[in-house]
Amino acid sequence: MFRYVLRKSVNIVLSLFVLATATFFLMKAIPGDPFMQEKNVPAAVRENLIRYYGFDKPLWHQYLIYLKNLLQLDLGMSMRQQYQSVVDIISRSFKYSMQLGLVAIVVSVVVGIAVGLIAALYNRKLIDRLIMLFATIGIAVPNFVLATLAQYYFANKLRWFHVAGLHGPMDYVLPTLALSVLPIAFIARLTRSTMIEVLSADYIRTAKAKGLGSLTILIRHALRNGLLPVVSYVGPMTANIITGSVVVESIFGIAGLGKFFTDSVSNRDYTLIMGITLFYAAILMFSRFITDIAYALIDPRIKISKKGG
Amino acid sequence: MQTTNVETNKGNIDPGKFAKLEKTPKDVVESGSKSRSAGQEILYRLYTNSWAMVSLGILLVIVFFAIFGPSMSEHNFYSNNLDAQNLAPSGDYWFGTDSLGRDIWSRTWKGAQISLTVGLVAALADLLIGVLMGGMMGYFGGKVDEILNRFSEVLYAIPYLLVVILVSVVLGSNMWTIILAMTITGWINMSWIVRGQIMQLKNQEYVLAARSMGAGGFHIVLRHLIPNSLGPIIVTLTLSVPSAIFAEAFLSFLGLGVQSPAASWGVMINDAMKTWKYFPWQLLFPAGLLTITMLAFNIFGDGLRDAFDPKMKV
């Protein structure tokens, strides 16, 4: 177990280092400097800006400064949002994204498992086919299309919700819907297929033969094994919800990290792009790390001391 | 019947019953059901899966229009026409026009060309690199596997869409940089599938038999290992097409897609976003086709998986 955790931790640090290095050199590979587009900037101001950001030093020196700052969790200043550091922007905006993301994760897991379970219990009946149809569609509909349609229909037309903003609990409904449909569809399919397999296993028949009630069998015996694959999906789900929030937040005008990310991409605010990318990657890697360990702890069949495939 | 016959004729057997009959090929064929090879069996299962066949049909129709659609309309996809802004679909402009008066029919099918090309080329690039790397990991094992696997794990931890966004911010956005950006981490999934297959296959007896008959490593990989892991490879390939198409649309939605006047579905959706409440058809056609295409690829991929491995049926 210790070796496994160690190996995964080393991997995370390596990945972050690779990503940090790659982002640094990618940003440096862009022709010109970030102040080129700025019009009417006097030469002296430009000089000062360049000196301030350290762009006059040789590349290796800039890289070392960058790494040193990174270790101190200093991601530099935003180049477009004046007087704001990247860390400030992230810490201020991330709380909205996190609230929304957590709600979306909880909704996805609960609804996904429930729907998948219903489908498995009514295997090959009409309700199962309907659920699977919706699940297939849910995987294919792009989240930004879904978000726009939901916004138009429920907020603009029916006026059930606010069009934009995140001020009350009702404002969570549409963004959560847009974020959760894909994970719900995925979890439902996953739950259904494993539950169908588990429900036909010998030990379930044994439990039935002992005279246990069907609810007890379902909860105590079947769900335990049937939910294992769902645990392994938590990592990818976090990735989906994070990347989804990038567009969903800008569509619903939520001042979360995703919106700043889209803005930074369209403004070419390089330090902000770099900072948010690293931050996203760190969250994702951490959630994958937790998932891997949780999975190994839950399922004793996985030999964690050996290299996993 | 027979037993009573034998009993009544006890001690009095007709030697004629033991005459040798000629065996005709006709008898053999009619004696049982037709035998099918593994490949035919797979095609048969796919063929009888009506959802998969409908999806395949839809995809073929979309490909047909992607190729011939733009030339069907008398309007091209790039000319602005300020006298024909935001027109609803009509006999002249079949899908209407956009805010610059460009013909949406031509743009939609031109966009289909780009979206499909991105999806297919990115999937093929993933296939090529993934099979190569996965094959090396699985076949050589040991140190090679250790190093390559570590490398891919480190790379895989970096979120796919973030890499794509970063690279397109830097390299600028055209179709080829988008494909390149997708391939940087896109091949990893394929390589793991191939690695798993090959590790499982290479210890089987028939590979040992081939080896003991003097087959070289290259021959074994090409003739035995890859053909036998073809099923999961094809399924992964089919399912990676829609995710590439989605990634392209996502990028275009962020304003990082192909540049105007070129059209892709993502670019058209992004253009239509601001005004589609008044001109819904501008969003409807590209968004609808994007969804239908991804849906069809997903259903067809599921069908393929069921056909290759009926036990896996989901």
Description:
The complex is a heterodimer of chains A (309) and B (314). In chain A, 36% of the residues are buried. Chain A has a domain at 95-298: Orthogonal Bundle (MetI-like fold), CATH 1.10.3720.10. The radius of gyration of chain A is 24 Å and the shape is flat. Chain A has helices at 2-29, 43-52, 59-71, 86-121, 126-140, 143-157, 173-199, 202-209, 214-226, 228-251, 257-267, 270-298. In chain A, helix 1 (2-29) runs antiparallel to helix 12 (270-298). By secondary structure, chain A is an all-alpha fold. Chain B is mostly helical and 314 residues long. Chain B has one domain (50-68, 95-308): Orthogonal Bundle (MetI-like fold). Chain B contains 13 helices and no strands. Chain B has helices at 2-8, 25-31, 38-47, 50-72, 104-140, 142-156, 160-171, 175-201, 205-212, 217-228, 230-253, 265-273, 281-308. The longest helix of chain B has 37 residues, at 104-140. Chain B is flat, with a radius of gyration of 28 Å. Classes of the chains: A mainly alpha (309), B mainly alpha (314). Chain A binds chain B through residues 11-12, 14-15, 18-19, 22-23, 26-27, 29-30, 136-137, 139-142, 144-145, 148, 152, 156, 189, 192-193, 239, 242-243, 246-247, 262, 265-266, 268, 273, 277, 280-281, 284-285, 288, 307, 309, and chain B through 146, 149-150, 153-155, 157-162, 165-167, 169-170, 192, 195-196, 199, 242, 246, 249-250, 253-256, 269, 273, 276-277, 283, 287, 290-291, 294-295, 298-299, 302, 314.
